[in-house]
Amino acid sequence: MNQIIETILGFLKSPLNALDESLSQSLPDQSYAALAAFAFYCLVVLAGGLTAVLSRNLVRAMMGLILTFLGVAGFYLLLACPFLAFMQLLIYVGAVCVLVFFAVMLTKNSAVGQEQNLPSLSHIILGFLAGLAPLAILTPMIIKHAPNYQITPEPTKTSLLGRGLLSSDVVPFELISIILLVAMAGAVFLVWRKKPDKKPN
Amino acid sequence: MDLSIVSFVQIIVSVLLVIALMVANAVVMVYIERKMAGFIQRRPGPYEVGPYGTIQAVCDSMKLLAKQVFVPGNVDWLLYFLAPVTAFLPVLLLYLPIPFGPYLTAMNVDDGILLILAFAGLGVVSNLLAGWASNNKYGVLGAARAVSQSVAYEIPMIMALLSVVFLTGSLNLTEIVDSQGSWPWQWNIFAQPFAFFIYLVSLIGETNRAPFDLPEAESELTAGFHTEYSGMGFALFFLSEYANMLLVSFVCATFFLGGWKGPFLDGFWWTFIKAYAIMVFMVWIRWTFPRVRFDQLLNINWKWLLPLSILNLWLTAAILKILSKIY
């Protein structure tokens, strides 16, 4: 039974495999495809970021942010770490964006809110400088420590990642967990309101 | 993953097949749902068009295709049209890692269940966008409910799936099926009955089905987040809702019921039989239980399902640790 299916599948795939071989001979390597994908994700991230910054509507800005997160997830996929890419989507799109969205929705729903007005010129310049600050820190590092050849990334198995997090890197992992726990407890404490005593009807 | 013409063609063919499956599933499920609703409420259901009313669903979808796309005034048109698209597109990706049969896996992804959970998050975004963009109070209320519900029910669902992942030691859906046997007592449902129960409850909450269909409760919110959508916009929401139902059923079959393995003869038919059994179960639940109140809905989740799932996960880890020390 299984052998029959395998022969049929092999027969179906044989012309495609032949095409694949002839194409791989004519093309030098896969780096062009990777480069094209990198350019595409760059465009996605830039377009998303510009939408997030320039749009006058908070919800549209939110959509730009989601687009940026999708593009960054694409970068992670190109770096052969699908685990990080899926976690990026799961946490940033599925949780962070949705919660921010929720906050926008629960607060003032007005078309002429504060975000409709352009900030003053000094604010724009200060914001621009603040945005450049991480670039000023990161650019010298990248230029100084850039690898002089392209490495094809090797995917790491998720089980290996987990083993590393719980053996050699267990202290930072647990510290981050404690920070998150403290943040959560703090958030609950901030919104905690003692219930007023119920009067019997 | 290597980039080759074979894998490329495989992905395109499987996405086309998934679209066909989504449409066929919606048509068949509408018929099954209406017939079962009729049976449960002691009335015939659709019976006029075709033998036993079988062509009714086809006629309904034709009507939906021909309907005028009506855009209400003062909507944010970009977001209004983006919302059905963001509901529909991620669903195509969600079916890729599912092993339908021993040879029927579109993409053997190493972190398959993470891919499904990650892109399923976009569904919530689409509900929010639809409710927000349609400039309607019912829409905003429905979207707010949809979000608090899906964010809440996602947690016990992930916990239940995680306990199976603990057992198998893999996030790959193909490996999870491989770790189970052909006979029912070799399936994960016997090792993880509580996880199965938690997953079953939270999948109804996650897909916004009655008795947990608060985001579109018609008696109080007209139609919730898709009140202002008609024609193809509504059709896309409708398709993706049924596709999401089918997806959680497939994931349930893969994780708890042995996937394509079954008694006597393994094959893709077992996946479909199991998934559709869960679909019919969801329809049955929908037409026999009254809708819960919203605070009840959230209390079931935060006060019962979440502690239970954490306890189950902790017990699984502890028992696995003890067993690994003994053997």
What does this structure look like?
- The complex is a heterodimer of chains A (201) and B (327).
- Chain A has 7 helices and no strands.
- Chain A is mainly α and 201 residues long.
- Among the domains of chain A are: 31-108, NADH-ubiquinone/plastoquinone oxidoreductase chain 6, subunit NuoJ (Four Helix Bundle (Hemerythrin (Met), subunit A)), CATH 1.20.120.1200; 157-189.
- With 327 residues, chain B is mostly helical.
- Chain B has one domain (69-326).
- The mean pLDDT of chain B is 84.
- At the A-B interface, helix 1, helix 3 and helix 4 of A face helix 1, helix 3, helix 4 and helix 5 of B.
List key phrases describing it.
heterodimer; A: 201 residues; mainly alpha; Four Helix Bundle (Hemerythrin (Met), subunit A); B: 327 residues; globular
Stated plainly, the CATH topology of one domain in chain A is called: Four Helix Bundle (Hemerythrin (Met), subunit A)
Q: What is the strand content of chain B?
A: under 5%
Summarize the main sheet of chain A.
none
- Main beta sheet of chain B, described? none
User: How many individual domains of chain B?
Assistant: 1
Query: What structural category do the secondary elements of chain B indicate?
Result: mainly alpha
Distance between the termini of chain B: 36 Å
Tally the helices of chain A: what do you get? 7
Question: How far is the N terminus from the C terminus of chain A?
Answer: 74 Å
Could you state the oligomeric state of the chains shown? heterodimer
User: How would you name the CATH homologous superfamily of one domain in chain A?
Assistant: NADH-ubiquinone/plastoquinone oxidoreductase chain 6, subunit NuoJ
DSSP strand count of chain B: 0
CATH domain class name of one domain in chain A = Mainly Alpha
Number of helices of chain B: 12
* Approximate helicity band of chain A: over 70%
- Describe the global form of chain B: globular
Give the rounded overall mean pLDDT of chain B: 84
Helix content, binned percent of chain B:
55-70%
